[in-house]
Description:
By secondary structure, the chain is mainly α. It is 34% helix and 2% strand. A hairpin with a 5-residue loop joins strand 1 and strand 2 (139-140). Helix 1 packs across helix 2 (47-61), helix 11 packs antiparallel against helix 12 and helix 11 (276-294) packs parallel to helix 13 (335-351).
Amino acid sequence: MNKTLLTTLCALLLVVAMIGCEREVVETIIVNDTGNDTDCFTCHSGSDLGLAMEAISDQYGYSIHASNDNTDRNRLGASYYASCEKCHTSEGFIAEVTGVPASGEYFSSINCFTCHTPHENGDLSVRVTEAITLADGTAYNKGQSNLCASCHQSRRDVNVYVAADTTGTFTIPGHFGPHYGNQGDMLIGANAYEYATYTYYSSAHKNVTVDGCIDCHMAAGRHASYGGHSWNMISEDKGYELTQGCNIPSCHNSGISDLDLTAQADFDWDGTVEGIQTEVHGLLDSLQIHLEAAGFVDSTGHSISGVVIPSQDSAGALYNFIYVEDDRSFGVHNTDYVVGLLQSSINFLATGDPNGTPARNSDIVASHK
């Protein structure tokens, strides 16, 4: 199936999910893959549907899911890629959630049938509705976004992964961290390295977002490049920021126009209260300086494979640095948790106490200075 047809089918099926399917589903309905997108219109047609299809098709075209990136992470490339299939390919994800192994003959990128069942119930149900258990055993249960969290979570249990060896030290492996897409963990404040004597909190997003990711990332944008089925929060084309999902009565009530909302305090200790994302970038800059000084990361902030870290708590500071970077919201998903993770990590590396108060490093040149 070519990319144009795939995108069109995705849009069509998602629209049907919204407007309903009037055809009675009697037995298993077979979707014919003939390379002709007119087959879908045998049952689903109409001008309203066509217009909506175009809109959703445009949105999906701007998404990372449509980019086909990393689909080659499958067993046909190398046997060790087999564990990647479940989130990097459509066939792998369906196999993971249904329990029916993929044939392994071919693998395709994420598409509409990856997340939605087209005809089983006649309503394009999502494939995952039940709560998700994160790698550390924490339950993620936020409505329709349980589907998202099936993949947007850490692949590692921090309690096992960041553990000292028999000598009390920790050696940095070739790849260190939660494995990139840990947004589910971050949103509910879980599975980062938490110092035993430090108290961590989560911000309101943990509780007020009934459907988690969807409440914000799928709000309607005024251009196809953000919101909806692009899932983008910022339009790179237009420069728009998606605040529609934020400005509702139960949340910010039309109070924000910028995702870098002014922070409640000077989190990065630079003497100025700035936007949350700006403050978090400042904390990351500070933590990177301490990690570089310790020899754990290079000048680009990447961990250095093979370096022996003297303690589990020191390794935890490095893990938290990567955990926050990999989330990529820079505090928006869970401000309180991010600030706690970064401040306690800086405090520990600077003073040996996660509750300590280090002097501000005069060499810090934060990204916002």
